[in-house]
UniProtKB/TrEMBL annotation:
Record-given protein name: ABC-2 family transporter protein
Keywords: Membrane, Transmembrane, Transmembrane helix
Source species: Actinopolyspora xinjiangensis
Membrane-crossing segments per the record: 16-36, 56-78, 106-127, 147-172, 179-199, 256-280
């Protein structure tokens, strides 16, 4: 197994795939986080409370929700690029069983996903800091312990998206289809489904959609932290609408725990990776 992992590392590192997808994470996270400090009616909240707001906590959530797509694409392309370049036949024939090959690819993919998550956390923090102090001027970034929790949750969300991309890429076995479907689903289908479900008797289902569940990993930490910092001892009397409005922008669901969202999304990742393993084990290679 160690030899297979080394072989996958040697195949991955010289290529431009991993760093070409990593490069946009830094500026994207920074800009989205900076933008996140200026939305959600933070100026109005600041005027009402008369205090600086830890908008960086919310900004980190927004940055993570948008940046995890790069990890998903990495996971998908790790699986589909060998089919695209017609090298998968040699890989499977020289390294049996196929499940071991998949495991080695997955280990390398997850290690890179952790790097993506850390880069997102660092530049999301920087964007939240710059936006909170230079942009809207509405406040800071919260405490170190809060940022470590939110950053860690962001890394977890990034790793799970890489798993989802890995499993989906293995199932479709087509680079173009995998990229298009993942992007379209994350930024269109999941959002539209949540809008359609809102206000209906089935609105509770939106928290269990893949995109909403992944956003809740960080959002269900960041929003309660933000309100706790702003409201202080008055937190128990903060209306549910305040939570819901912030969740609608920064991710998550009112009354839903971050670890609950993580378990739901991990279930989707396990389902896709498990299905891919079963399919590839019996797939004909050419």
């Amino acid at each position: 197994m160690t030899g297979l992992i080394r072989a996958e590392i040697r195949k991955m590192l010289p290529t431009n795939l991993w760093w070409a997808l990593l490069l946009p994470v830094a500026p994207w996270s920074l800009l989205v986080a900076w933008y996140g400090t200026a939305i959600g009616r933070v100026d109005m909240i600041q005027e009402i409370t008369g205090q600086a707001l830890p908008t960086g906590l919310l900004a980190m959530s927004l940055a993570t929700n948008y940046s995890t797509i790069f990890a998903a694409l990495l996971g998908a392309l790790v699986m589909t690029r060998e089919s695209w370049h017609r090298t998968v036949t040699t890989t499977f024939l020289t390294a049996n069983p196929r499940s071991s090959v998949l495991s080695a690819k997955l280990v390398v993919c997850l290690a890179l996903a952790v790097v993506y998550g850390v880069v997102n956390a660092v530049f999301g923090f920087l964007g939240g800091f710059l936006g909170g102090t230079l942009g809207s001027g509405s406040g800071g970034v919260g405490g170190l312990d809060q940022w470590l929790l939110i950053g860690g949750a962001g890394v977890l969300a990034t790793v799970l998206w890489a798993l989802v991309g890995f499993g989906f890429g293995a199932l479709v076995n087509n680079s173009v289809a995998a990229v298009l479907v993942l992007v379209f689903y994350k930024f269109m289908v999941d959002v539209l489904a949540s809008v359609v479900l809102a206000g209906t008797e089935l609105s509770w289902l939106s928290s269990y959609l893949p995109g909403a569940a992944s956003n809740g990993i960080v959002g269900n930490l960041a929003v309660p932290m933000f309100i706790s910092e702003v409201a202080g001892a008055r937190e128990p009397i903060v209306p549910a609408q305040a939570f819901q409005q912030l969740h609608a922008i920064f991710g998550g669901s009112y009354g839903f725990s971050w670890w609950g969202s993580a378990l739901v999304f991990a279930g989707y990742a396990a389902l896709l990776c498990g299905g891919a393993t079963l399919l590839i084990r019996d797939r004909e290679i050419h």
